[in-house]
Amino acid sequence: MLIAVSTSASRMFYVGLSAEPGRDAVAAAFAVHAPAARLRWAGIDEDCDGVIFLDVQCNASEFPYVLGATNLAGGDDYEIGLAIARDLSVVLRCRTVCDGTRHGPGSSPGWCVVWDQGRAFLGDDYGSVFYDDSPELSDSERAALGPVRILHPLEI
């Protein structure tokens, strides 16, 4: 889903979206929250300083588009991901999902934040099609997966 980079300085984050993200909307959100970054779509090349590489992949869940970001520009990936997910949920009038591990009640990588047109909710994506779907699953395993579970509203 995300671009792999062979450098220890790379960091990655994602935003799942229920509506297709246009490049202009994505660029506008990054201009606000990572203004010094240069955005590049797709492959990584030799000129990586200050770049955030982006790609969009399909997902078979209620969030059929996943914006993957490999951040070589600096900043807090968690906070940038939250802000980009929030802004895109408003601009695109859709639901988005991003990492929520800092907002869960305990230490679990399954916590996510679901944004619904700018309103935040704590979610759990374990056992969801969004997080757990894989080509290696059997039909019965895939059928057991559901949507991201919404737990309660968050004040962010």
What is the helical fraction, as a range of percent? 10-25%
Structural class: alpha+beta
Major beta-sheet overview: 8 strands, mixed
Helix count, DSSP H or I runs of 4 or more residues = 4
Query: Strand-residue fraction?
Result: 25-35%
Q: Which regions have little confidence, pLDDT < 50, spanning 5+ residues?
A: 1-10
What is the β-strand count? 8
Structure description:
The protein has 156 residues and is an alpha+beta fold. The chain has four helices and eight strands. It has helices spanning 23-33, 77-91, 129-132, 139-143; strands at residues 11-17, 38-41, 51-58, 65-71, 95-99, 111-116, 119-124, 149-154. It has an eight-stranded mixed β-sheet with strand order 2-3-4-1-5-6-7-8, covered by helices on one side. A hairpin with a 2-residue loop joins strand 6 and strand 7 (119-124).
Question: What's a quick, concise take on this entry?
Answer:
The protein has 156 residues and is an alpha+beta fold. Helices cover 22% and strands 31% of the residues.
Which features does this protein show?
alpha+beta; eight-stranded mixed sheet; disordered N terminus; 156 residues; 31% strand; globular
What order do the helices and strands come in, and which of them pair?
Blueprint: E1 11-17, H1 23-33, E2 38-41, E3 51-58, E4 65-71, H2 77-91, E5 95-99, E6 111-116, E7 119-124, H3 129-132, H4 139-143, E8 149-154
Parallel strand pairs: 2-3
Antiparallel strand pairs: 1-4, 1-5, 3-4, 5-6, 6-7, 7-8
Helix pairs in contact: 1-2
